[in-house]
Amino acid sequence: MRKIFTFFLVTFLCASLNLFAQQYTQSDYASTTTNTAVTINVMANDIGFSPNYCVVINNSGAVAFLAPQHGTVTVSGQSIIYQPNQGFVGTDVFVYGVSVCGTTNVIDTADVTVTVVQDSTTGCQAYFSYQTGSSGQVYFFGYNQNSNPGDSLNYYWNFGNGTTSNQQNPVITFTNSIVNVCLTIATANNCTSTYCDTLFINNTNCNIVISGSVTPATNANTANGAISTTVTNATFPITYQWNNGATTQGLNGLFPGLYTVTVTDNANCSNSATFNVYPLDSTPSFTVSVSTVNSSSNACNGAATLYFYNGTAPFIVQFSGMSYTTMLSSLTLDSLCPGMYTVTVYDNMQNSYTLTFAIGSSTNPDTNLVVTVSTENADYNMCNGTAYLSVVGGYPPYSYQVFASNSSTPVSISDLNGNLCPGTYTVVVNDSLMNQATVSFIIYEGAINPNDTILWVDVLTGIGQNVPPTCNGYAYANIYGGTAPFSYLWSNGVAAQNLTNLCPGYYCVTVTDANGLTAYGCASLDSIPSTNIPTDTLSSQVDTCIITAPIDSAWVNSVSTDSNGVVTGVWIITVNGQAYTIIVPYNITAPGTYNMVLVINCIGGAKTLYVLNTNYTVTPEELNMTGCNEVRADNILVYPNPVKDYLYLNCENAPVSVSLYTIQGSLVFNANNVNKTLSIPVTGLADGAYVLKITNTDGTIIVKRILK
């Protein structure tokens, strides 16, 4: 009896223990509000409750318990306290174990589901969603779950790796596979809320790309298909694992069917790809179409419905690492964030179809394509302007087209980097969804810079008594930029800066500076009409020592006369880039055309005596005089020069573009598409020298100096 009783007792205890353990497989449920801890008496609903059994949440054995992903748990006796993460709203699941108190032997496990709902008394609640990109980025979308459409929000992100952001939708790249992210929002009415979550990011920095080609099998009963693969963006060496057990890079001798390979590189990154070996004697006509619904701005609630045609059910849909099987002729994918997606569908006959679609954002301003531009103007007479583009929003990658207003040929996008000529440009930007944005800008031509390292020459001509056989014209080479000393070579063989005693003709000069820079300039020298033959020479002498160096250039800027027959000439003389004005009186006895001569004498020892005969012809007209010289080049006639009220152009080769600059390089007049004639008002301009730039349709540029 004792033995029987003892045996019975042991049997009963064992049976009781087994029965007791099985009763702890029951699940537990609890609910709480945001940011509020909840105590869960997990053993209260279990049959066989005993104070001799304890709750454990960590298992040191081979099997680890599932921990909550959106909160933390602690043990209090036979209860578990669950604390949701700050701001978390949703469902969280974890697993706990049961052991005999004082031992580590877990005799059973059970799961707990906690539902966290929004606290209705809270005025705002931060929340965020996220999606991972193909190159390791994580796209975050932050918002206020209780927001009104007009709420003004500030965002404060902490990504747990020392990185923060104040953007609503930041893009972050992580190096760890587990990160803790918190978002705090602040509304205009001083309501603040924080939401934190733990992200499990797999292969964040991995971007293995598997591509390949398929050789089809002859028919369904012949094993002569093949697959070759190419792997990029991997850290070699790499391993291959096919679903048929092969470990080679490619496969041969294949029957028709689907073959999947998983590639793992030396950095423990992995990716998979599936290839369809189809029989040549079948004609796949299986197709798939898609219709999409955009996502709203503060949630991933977009959708795509796939429609299957000419295929045999069931259909297998491979999408974002998941596989779906359906017997229906359509399938809807929901909870999609804005972005680009690729889906591959197989029917039961191993036919496949791959398509790419986009989910847009209906109201998110960050997805609007916006293009802005800033510019740097081109230097004078150069094509070295720059435009800096900034593209925000839309869906990369972007494509660009650049158009110039004076050309129907698109300008290369690389030309924006320092190769733009003066003019108006338009840039058209398209994103991957063919959203389009356009921006226009102007590259202006800079002023003439005498200190520029770019060498430029202006040839100035003048006519005196140029009526054959008399030749007393001149041509001056005025230099801008470059580095002295300069060398000169004229088309008539003279190696000097200035030419005098010239007959009518066309004169060109090549200028070379000390660094080997060269510049080329030309001008035409014409005869004046015979009616303007000078009748006399007016000469005057001025004693002054302000001129103590060789003179660069000199001309009469303006003349006036009074009732007593005294003509006053205003001379402009430049020395080493400095302009000097000397007002000189002349006596005349009758109206006519005169040459004007100025003698400058330095008193007190007469260091240097300058005799200036500009061969400059003026004609008295009542109480004022203006010049009547003409400037002719390439069938373009410019007159009078000097000018008083209007400067006239007669253009045989039209149209042309005309610009008038001050000698310092400021633009004072501009006209495009000039046909035949043009009058330029100069009455309001200050007296002095000006530069006239004429551009032909073939790009030829004529530059002349104009005096007022």
List keywords for this structure.
708 residues; mainly beta; Immunoglobulin-like; seven-stranded mixed sheet; four-stranded mixed sheet; 54 strands; 3% helix
Description:
With 708 residues, the protein is mainly beta. Among the domains are: 2-117, Immunoglobulin-like (Sandwich); 126-200, Sandwich (Immunoglobulin-like); 209-277, Immunoglobulin-like (Sandwich); 287-359, Immunoglobulin-like, CATH 2.60.40.2410; 368-443, Immunoglobulin-like, CATH 2.60.40; 629-707, Immunoglobulin-like (Sandwich), CATH 2.60.40. A seven-stranded mixed beta sheet has the order 40-44-45-46-41-42-43, with no helix packed on it. The protein is elongated and about 135 Å long. Mean pLDDT is 72; it is low at 1-25, 60-64, 464-469, 528-533, 605-609 and 614-634.
Biggest sheet statistics: 7 strands, mixed
In CATH, the architecture of the domain at 2-117 is Sandwich
The H-level CATH homologous superfamily of the domain at 2-117, spelled out, is Immunoglobulins
The tally of helices reads: 1
CATH topology of the domain at 2-117: Immunoglobulin-like
CATH class descriptor of the domain at 2-117: Mainly Beta
Helix/strand-derived category reads: mainly beta
Helix content: under 10%
Mean pLDDT score: 72
Strand residue content:
over 45%
User: What general form does the structure show?
Assistant: elongated
Note poorly predicted spans: 1-25, 60-64, 464-469, 528-533, 605-609, 614-634
Number of DSSP E strands:
54
